[in-house]
Predict the 3D structure of the following.
Amino acid sequence: MTDPLDSYIDAAAAALAIPIRPEWKSEIRANLAVTFKFAALVGEKELTEDAEPAPVFKT
Amino acid sequence: MPSPRRSSKPEAAFDSGWATAGEIARSVAKGRVSAMSVVEDALARITAHDPVLNAFTDVLADRALRRARTIDAARAKRKTLGALAGVPFAVKNLFDVKGLPTRAGSKINRELPPAVQDQPLIERLEAAGAILVGALNMGEYAYDFTGENAHDGNAHNPHDVNRMTGGSSGGSAGAVAGGLVPLSLGSDTNGSIRVPSSFCGLFGLKPTYGRLTRARSFPFVASLDHLGPLARSARDLALAYDAMQGHDPGDPVCVNRPVEPTLAKLARGSKGLRIAVAGGYFTKGAFPEARAAMDRVAAALKANKEVEIPEAARARAAASVITSSEGAAVHLERLRTRAADFDPATRDRLIAGAMIPAVLVNRAQKFRRWYRGEMLKVFDKVDAILAPATPCTAPLIGQKAFVLDRVELPVRPNIGIYTQPISFIGLPVVAVPVSLDPLPIGVQIIAAPWREDIALRIAYALEQMGVCVAPRPKL
């Protein structure tokens, strides 16, 4: 069965114009899966609607 | 013929191979040794040991010797010398060094034109009398915890050359721990000063995010990048750090704060400071060596209380998301046109990072601000927090996995589990070495934003107690 991330990787690579060799794909998929997992963990944290990023810390 | 005046207690022979930066500067200022001989000795040690350590990618002998001549001439004219007079140092090769392409550990960047000006921290150290002797090996584009490099060869740990230095400032640690130079500069995005300091038995300072200018250094992750020193003593960190402070409009993140010198505060030690041990997340996933080092440092400081760093696992996750995405943004054009010229381990992570949707990165940035607010509340109750620097001592070069509590874990991503949640919000940290047998390991001393002085005071106190000492390798 095809991993659903494979079609995402193909589409994203085309949209971003990044040529990918077939032999690179499994590591890219593994890394992408880990990062999505991390992002899901971050996303589980409820923050208020007015939470805004602070790119530079002054205090 | 009159005999030279001798003191009743002769001074110890000057050992330029293991003298601290402070000792070298004092000796040069007193005329006990010339800057020229110090630099010649450093160059001779590099020639002798670097073929094994592979810490240096560029040695700048002519430049260093010219500079040493200038320092000695200034002393001959009785001019006041700087606090780092005659101290040889070297920098991770992502710092611009005039005349060199800023390779940042890559194959691709060495095709860049040579830098036309030194990175400002080099300029500031040299203004204090230090002497740049070369540029140092590093993990490609700083996306690395191992010190391995597919293009320049791996950096080797001076305490066991079959083992990793840690990365990505691998050469920065190998050069100092191996006694080639007493001081180096590295960068730390997720742990790249603290990890190699831990594996190589050094003191390393990652200052507050925005404290030291990053202008004219090759970027990795704008939200998380820091520059800082590695040395064999806490005092040397303070000496170098004090010389490097100051606003620089060339780095949009560099904050316009007054210079806050730390050197004179070191002797205050740890007395009166509220020091706690990080609990929860930071007590899990560590090998016995990391726990032993923590116990030793906590006992010496009488740090009996534990504090919870809230949401540290999520902080590490968010740091990883931001790293993937911002790192990929830096390299997008190279990924489009030169992907085959990257180290495969870097390339595959960067390509994956380019595919992370922006909404997820934005969430991570929002969480970053929330987490920082929570951490500031922790610092209402304590002045410093102790945490392991790495879960293990230096793994073997090329090692892909280790077994902890009967679970096999990949080495690369797990080396930084304790450093990532701290640099994520830019807290100042000093990594201090604990000399376990056979290999050293580090402990992080974490302070509130802009309180590098506190972390350095504690590191200095531990050094004075003999608890944290940089071990000398047998080379």
About this structure: The mean pLDDT of chain A is 92. The two ends of chain A are 52 Å apart (CA to CA). DSSP finds two helices and no strands in chain A.
